[in-house]
Design brief:
The chain is an alpha/beta fold. The chain folds into two domains: 31 residues; 254 residues, TIM Barrel, CATH 3.20.20. It is 35% helix and 17% strand. Strands 1, 2, 3, 4, 5, 6, 7, 8 and 9 form a nine-stranded mixed β-sheet that branches. Helix 7 runs parallel beside helix 8. It is globular and about 50 Å long. This is Menorin-like domain-containing protein. One of its GO terms (cellular component) is extracellular space. Keywords: Membrane, Transmembrane, Transmembrane helix. Belongs to the menorin family.
Length: 301
């Protein structure tokens, strides 16, 4: 039988092209797929609130927050209110006995210790977010949290600013020291890792730079826990490509959008995030008036 050399030659070329194309497709898919550390976990906070019936779908915008529950009156108010997540600040008392207390700088004392705060919280099904303002408070606080953990029903988030961010003047907690204290003791928790930031009216406030998000991702990549990045709402319009890239690096990552009391926020600036990201991956920790206005926008859903 006579063989057509031209046909064989063309067939070989087609086969090579097919192999190269398939190899490139697989490699590209792997390169663009979210990475996860071995044995890593996703954020199950929404699943918990869905099961409880306090939200109706896996939409992180439906999770409500209570801020600065740093006193006996505030924590009792939070437990009686509709918020699913209770946030409070933790630091070491400024005088003896030097123990973890619920307070935000510049305050150095409180009418409630972390131990007493946890003993009240365990009677509820709320989630909690502990915002550490002092590295010295982390180790004794994590020990107290371990003692209460078996009784805690809701999600536990551990928060600290570990890097300097746009306009940030405050000194962040040392990232390595903080994570050494919490990583092994908070295997089932959400780590909320952020940047120190600043915002000023009537100026061009910079957003989160590529260097900032890449540095944060390098720190978080080896972690097994789900990580949420608290990001300042007023800085989001100038940070979209950077934060989009950050979320693409792992399916363990989410954003928690927050706002300062004096920040000027146009809620329409949040729409690109609402429209371009999965609704389960962005929490909105905003003022009640802001979240209501945001949800009323025609393009919100």
């Amino acid at each position: 039988m006579r063989v057509n050399r031209r046909s064989v030659y063309l067939s070989c070329i087609c086969a090579v092209i097919l192999v190269v194309t398939l190899t490139w497709t697989v490699w590209t898919h792997m390169a663009n797929s979210p990475s996860s550390a071995a044995g890593s976990k996703r954020d199950h906070s929404l699943d918990y609130f869905l099961k409880k019936g306090t939200i109706q779908e896996r939409d992180a915008a439906d999770v409500n927050w209570y801020h600065a529950a740093n006193s006996k009156d505030k924590i009792n108010e939070a437990l009686e209110g509709p918020a699913q997540m209770i946030e409070a600040d933790v630091l070491l008392r400024g005088h003896d006995p030097k123990e973890p207390i619920m307070a935000h700088p510049p305050y150095t004392d409180s009418d409630i210790t972390l131990q007493d705060w946890l003993s009240v919280v365990v009677t509820s099904d709320k989630g909690i977010k502990l915002d550490f303002k002092s590295l010295a408070a982390v180790e004794p606080s994590m020990a107290l949290l371990e003692e209460a953990r078996a009784q805690l029903e809701g999600p536990v988030w551990i928060n600290a600013d570990i890097l300097s961010g746009p306009g940030g003047l405050a000194t962040p907690l040392d990232a390595q020291a903080f994570l050494q204290e919490v990583a092994l003791r908070a295997e089932g928790d959400v780590l909320s890792l952020g940047w120190t930031t600043g915002w000023s009216p009537d100026t061009d406030n910079p957003g989160y730079s590529w260097e900032m998000v890449q540095q944060m991702e390098a720190i978080c990549r080896p972690l097994r826990q789900p990580v949420t990045f608290p990001v300042r709402a007023a800085l989001l319009p100038q940070s979209f490509p950077q934060l989009q890239w950050l979320l693409q690096q792992s399916d363990r990552y989410t954003l928690t959008v927050w706002t300062g009391q004096r920040d000027v926020l146009n809620v329409e600036d949040l729409l690109p995030y609402r429209q371009n990201f999965n609704k389960s991956r962005i929490y909105y920790d905003l003022l009640e008036s802001q979240i209501s206005k945001f949800k009323a926008l025609p393009r919100y859903n």
